[in-house]
Amino acid sequence: MTAISAPAIPAPALAARIGTTIRIHLANPWSLVITPALITFGVFLLNFAIWHAVRIAAGDRPLDPNAFNYNGGVSWVLFFMTVVAVQSMNQTFSFTVGLGATRRDYFLGTTLLFAGLALGFGTWIALMAGIERATNGWGINGHFFAPGFLGSLPLWELAVVYSLAIALMLAIGSAAGAMFVRWAANGVIAFFAVLAVVVVGGVFAISATHSWEAVARFFSERDVIDIALLSIPITLASAGFAFIALRRATPKG
Q: Which residue, 115, 140, 118, 143, is CA-closest to 130?
């Protein structure tokens, strides 16, 4: 009697597997897209209210033309993206790998999604900065989306700068997230402890060698976009670290 074997079912193409990873991440868009946007708007509205409170308190006294030009509120979205990356990987890694995706598929899909988030948020902030300029700083010369020296950049450069900055924070968050899915909270603590040691060690080395003047000269001689491009090696190194950590991460039930 001859046994009849069932035809083999071909594995989904790489693009399909990556697409599945992205869809799983976006199954709950609140943490990835909606919450960062809403809180950014909330921080903006708080700053807008403070600007008006200052104007009311000043009464007829003239304010400095640059009184509302320097503002770090929009930087909130940059740092929050690190948290977004950690949360997203914690929520999706085990489920995605449990469905049969390889760790490489998961890493590629997550990286592609985070790159899209960086480009999308960077472009959105630049467009908001364009509206800010067109309305003379929301009618009161306020600068939230492009504060300080960023206000003089062309909008396309502003979009590049913000996109690269957000990509850097997402990559750092990816590295921390990979440490979390592999070693839980202890992994995240260890990651940020090492990061703090590296940063403090760098500051100490610059101080010990009396190199602050050289550092200041290095950055002052370069355009903002050139400085932003310097973040790319750190972004790539963080993403590479995340991949290495994910390769041995075990899905948890």
A: 143
Instruction: Give a three-class secondary structure readout of 156-177.
Output: HHHHHHHHHHHHHHHHHHHHHH
Q: DSSP letter string over 46-68?
A: HHHHHHHHHHHHHTTSPPPTTTT
**What are the b/e assignments for 106-128, b being 16+ CB within 10 Å?**
bbbbbbebbbebbbebbbbbbeb
pLDDT tens-digit series, residues 146-196: 998 898 999 999 999 999 999 999 999 999 999 999 998 899 999 999 999
Q: Model-level pTM?
A: 0.92
Whole-number Å distance between alpha carbons of 79 and 157: 20
Domain borders along the chain are 14-246
Q: Specify the residue for token string 């989904």.
A: 12
Q: Is the pLDDT of residue 2 over 60?
A: no
